[in-house]
Amino acid sequence: MKISIDKDIFENFPEAKIGWLRAVITNGKGSPRVAEMKKNLKRRLEEIGLSADTVAQHPDIRRWRETFSKMGVKPSKYRSSIEALLRRIFKGDLWSVSDVVDCYDCVSALNLLPMGAHDMSKLRGDMTLRYAKEGEKFYPLGAGDSIVECGAKQIVYADGEKICCWLWNYRDTRDASVDEETKEALFIVDCAFENEWRSVEEGLAALASELTQIGCTVKKSGVVSAAEPEMETE
After folding, report:
1. What residues does the B3/B4 tRNA-binding domain cover (predicted)?
2. In the predicted model, what is the mean pLDDT of residues 99-114?
């Protein structure tokens, strides 16, 4: 399977990158390491100057808001996955899905980088970051039978048959989600601009390290960019 960024994305976001990582995963719960990461998240974020009142002012979060505005949506309503995650942490609304999901969410928060994951067995063909087609359908995770009709300015991840993530990293599809049956996952680290806090490469390295420490096996990883807009993940 190849992963790529469509050339039209680079016209408006020349610094766009995709950090990607394939791993055989564990489906357990209750990892002491993940529990410790979650327990210390708020404190560690406060140590770098973040709080509930300052999240939106951080340069990396502010630029994601600008990115969402360019997609024609209100960033105060449709928040990047990293902003939504940070707000949950400061509210004390910690999640508990599985060790692997909780782990990559922690890594995402600590690196201020949007991250996601898809079940490899549910993906078809190649994965591309591209502009949606007007009226193209998206089936969001956690929204029952709801269907979203995409707009032409909206950026999506799509495989050969479906949209896998809508508004760059706002919401994953229910048709490629990681669950208790997942054996292998494709992890994504998003970048639309040069980040101030952590680079995609640094976030990818942190993700690989933490996944390994909870029993996952990293098979391959890389970074797609304007210099190399397509990579083979096999």
Report:
1. 62-216
2. 97
CATH code (residue 181): 3.50.40.10
DSSP the chain: -EEEE-HHHHHH-TT-EEEEEEEE-------HHHHHHHHHHHHHHHHTT--TTTGGGSHHHHHHHHHHHHTTS-TTTS--HHHHHHHHHHHT----S-HHHHHHHHHHHHHT--EEEEEGGG--S-EEEEEPPTT-EE-BTTSTT--EEPPTT-EEEE-SSSEEEETTTTEEBTTS---TT--EEEEEEEESS--SS--HHHHHHHHHHHHHHTT-EEEEEEEE-SSS-EEE--
Domain coverage including residue 159? 2-225
Output the six-digit token pair for 163. Answer: 């949209």
pLDDT in tens, 126-156: 999 999 999 999 999 987 788 999 999 999 9
Tally of domains within the chain: 1
Domain-located, residue 127? yes
Q: What is the pLDDT of residue 46?
A: 96
* Residues making up the chain, counted from first to last: 234
The answer to whether position 76 is within a domain reads: yes
pTM over 0.90: yes
For tokens 């029952």, name the residue. 144
233 is a domain residue: no
Res 178 pLDDT > 80: yes
Phi and psi for 165 in degrees, rounded to 5? -150, 130
